[in-house]
């Protein structure tokens, strides 16, 4: 079996950046606050204010550490700290004081990204990149001062830092992002750290990077995730490569601002990763994508409470820096996703964690067997469409009219194909799907849809999120995102779509989580009117809605300062999630 070489793709900033201003949380709202309120999310994680690393479960509490700029809504103003929020249910979050601040020579110019690890004896540890007094990147460690404190409010940085100094052959600004540590069978801990060797210069748009690890670590850029070959259960990061275990090597690539991964096996004796699909090669841009949309720098952790692996990713803003400053915040985390290995042993499936169902309130839909003819657009009424959870299953009666593609090169770039074949372009089988965050006159809308192509005797199912009509505002990034759903549509003849709508965030999951697309949207109409939700078909062939359900979602408590709780929002401190009976 082929083994992955050390020279692969561009190493990334492994940052979760959520921004906001330094003004008081309790000041009277301004006109700008009112205008931006409609775009702030209701159930996605973001700090109450300023610019947004490592998630962790410990002693009954969930912790999310994130890069935080206490000085500005922009990343490059002042030195970065680590924000810290806690939750009992992954929905409601309480903001604590910062966990790490740039107060020592080894991090004097900023506490950058890293990861959290639970050491033997239930001792929480943080590994992070510090920008030292010489402005070089070094790797540091910090420990919980009182591990029995369920909130882990205080952290100590030992004087012996850095634990990994800058290697002699690595530039001072190209050594960062330590992964969650894992324990080998030899009793030694490993981490993965991204770096760029001085002998490997950029070639065109690609930067060749080498991974370096401490204490016999394996090759790769963070992260390293073990997965069970069968079932949906998660595994602790230190699970070894015995039978029934696969590992996932994930890279965040700055050149493309995308996250790529490969499933394979990890030999901790040789510290080598062997991919399940070696034909994809060493260029990670040919690997599988975690999300085909607007996400970057994903992080995951093993949730011991529910025996699952949970994934987050950063979805930054896509309008202007001036808009960031005006809002006083920037960037969100995707909604937490459960992640497990598909039966083919090659791809990951992702799905919103089940806790989101406790936010469901009013339900609409329950359509079964509704026929959508060519050009059909039907409104889904009865839910607040700017804050909703929508599940729909489409049945395709026939694939005879699927558009033919003779040139296979057209299938190599699904995002480009989505741009050429948008929702407004009539097709054969598709486009069909949802129009979300839509104005009443449909001048603004975001289209999430499927389209079927045929190359020779094989069918390819394309999933797109088309933002070209999402806003009439100038200066907003409005691409079409897309990816192919890895499933046999000829065999199934049905395709499911689940879309989470949260004001400026639209997350969609196609084919049971085989393809995911996250988008940021900024429609103008939300300032003065409500949004609408539609199901549509713009293909020449009819499709059927086998099932459609939509729910209003309640607003979670996310990093809101309440009374004299020192930044603790009481609902977030419940050690077990509250269930609401519908």
TrEMBL record:
Q: Which domain of life is it from?
A: Eukaryota
Q: Where is the Glycosyl hydrolase family 32 N-terminal domain?
A: 44-198, 244-352
Keyword Signal carried by entry: yes
What reaction is this protein's catalytic activity?
Hydrolysis of terminal non-reducing beta-D-fructofuranoside residues in beta-D-fructofuranosides
Q: Main subcellular localization, coarse class? A: secreted
Instruction: Decide whether keyword Hydrolase is in the record.
Output: yes
Compartments where located: Secreted, Cell wall
What's a GO biological-process term for it? carbohydrate metabolic process
Tell me the leader sequence span. 1-24
Q: In this protein, which residues make up the domain named Glycosyl hydrolase family 32 C-terminal?
A: 355-552
**Which GO MF terms does the UniProt record name?**
beta-fructofuranosidase activity
Q: Which InterPro entries match?
A: ConA-like_dom_sf, Fructan_Metab_Enzymes, Glyco_hydro_32, Glyco_hydro_32_C, Glyco_hydro_32_N, Glyco_hydro_beta-prop_sf
For this protein, the record's Pfam families field holds: Glyco_hydro_32C, Glyco_hydro_32N
Q: Which UniProt keywords apply?
A: Cell wall, Glycoprotein, Glycosidase, Hydrolase, Secreted, Signal
Q: What is its EC number?
A: 3.2.1.26
Annotated spans, Disordered: 213-239
The protein's matches in PANTHER family, at most eight in alphabetical order, are given as: BETA-FRUCTOFURANOSIDASE, INSOLUBLE ISOENZYME CWINV1-RELATED (PTHR31953)
Give the record's family classification.
Belongs to the glycosyl hydrolase 32 family.
Q: Under which name does UniProt file this protein?
A: beta-fructofuranosidase
What species is given as this protein's source?
Answer: Oryza barthii
Lineage, highest ranks first:
Eukaryota, Viridiplantae, Streptophyta, Embryophyta, Tracheophyta
């Amino acid at each position: 079996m082929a083994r992955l070489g050390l020279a692969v793709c561009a190493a990334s900033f492994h940052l979760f950046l959520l921004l906001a201003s330094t003004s008081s949380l309790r000041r009277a709202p301004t006109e700008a606050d009112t205008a931006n309120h409609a775009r702030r999310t209701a159930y996605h994680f973001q700090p109450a204010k300023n610019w947004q690393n490592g998630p962790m479960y410990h002693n009954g509490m969930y912790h999310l550490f994130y890069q935080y700029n206490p000085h500005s809504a922009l990343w490059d103003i002042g030195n970065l700290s680590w924000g810290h929020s806690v939750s009992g249910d992954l929905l409601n979050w309480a903001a604590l004081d910062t966990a790490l601040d740039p107060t020592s020579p080894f991090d004097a110019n900023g506490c950058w990204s890293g990861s959290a690890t639970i050491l033997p004896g239930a001792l929480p540890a943080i590994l992070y990149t510090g920008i030292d007094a010489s402005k070089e990147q070094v790797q540091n460690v910090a420990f919980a001062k009182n591990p029995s404190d369920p909130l882990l409010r205080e952290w100590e940085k030992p004087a012996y830092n850095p634990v990994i100094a800058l290697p002699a052959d690595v530039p001072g600004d190209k050594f960062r992002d330590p992964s969650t540590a894992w324990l080998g069978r030899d009793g030694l801990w490993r981490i993965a750290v991204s770096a760029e060797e001085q002998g490997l210069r950029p070639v065109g748009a690609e930067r060749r990077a080498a991974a370096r690890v401490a204490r016999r670590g394996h090759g790769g850029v963070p992260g390293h995730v073990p997965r069970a070959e069968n079932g949906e259960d998660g595994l602790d990061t230190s699970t070894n490569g015995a039978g029934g275990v696969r590992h996932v090597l994930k890279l965040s690539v700055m050149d493309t601002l995308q996250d790529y991964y490969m499933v394979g096996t990890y030999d901790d004796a040789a510290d080598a990763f062997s991919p399940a699909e070696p034909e994809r090669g060493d260029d990670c841009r040919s690997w599988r994508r975690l999300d085909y949309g607007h996400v970057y720098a994903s992080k995951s952790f093993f949730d011991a409470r529910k025996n699952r692996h949970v994934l987050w990713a950063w979805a930054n803003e896509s309008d202007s820096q001036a808009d960031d400053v005006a809002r006083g915040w920037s960037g969100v985390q995707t909604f937490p996703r459960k992640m497990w290995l598909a039966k083919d042993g090659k791809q990951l499936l992702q799905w919103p964690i089940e806790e989101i169902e406790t936010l469901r309130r009013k339900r609409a839909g329950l359509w079964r067997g509704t026929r959508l003819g060519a050009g059909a657009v039907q409104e889904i009424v009865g839910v607040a469409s700017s804050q909703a959870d929508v599940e729909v299953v489409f049945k395709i009666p026939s694939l005879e009219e699927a558009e033919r593609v003779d040139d296979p090169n057209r299938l190599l770039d699904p995002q480009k194909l989505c741009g050429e074949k948008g929702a407004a372009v009539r097709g054969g089988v598709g486009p069909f799907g949802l129009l979300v965050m839509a104005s009443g006159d449909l001048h603004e809308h975001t289209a999430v849809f499927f389209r079927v192509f045929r190359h020779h005797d094989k069918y390819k199912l394309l999933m797109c999120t088309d933002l070209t009509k999402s806003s009439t505002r100038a200066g907003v990034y409005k691409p079409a995102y897309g990816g192919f759903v890895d499933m046999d549509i000829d065999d199934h003849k049905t395709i499911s779509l689940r879309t989470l709508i949260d004001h400026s965030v639209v997350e969609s999951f196609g084919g049971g989580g085989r393809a995911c697309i996250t988008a940021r949207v900024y429609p103008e109409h939300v300032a003065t009117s409500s949004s609408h939700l539609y199901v549509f078909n713009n293909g020449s062939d009819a499709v059927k809605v086998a099932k459609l359900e939509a729910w209003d979602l309640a607003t979670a408590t996310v990093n809101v300062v309440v009374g004299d709780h020192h930044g603790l929002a009481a609902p977030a401190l419940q050690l077990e999630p509250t269930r609401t009976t519908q």
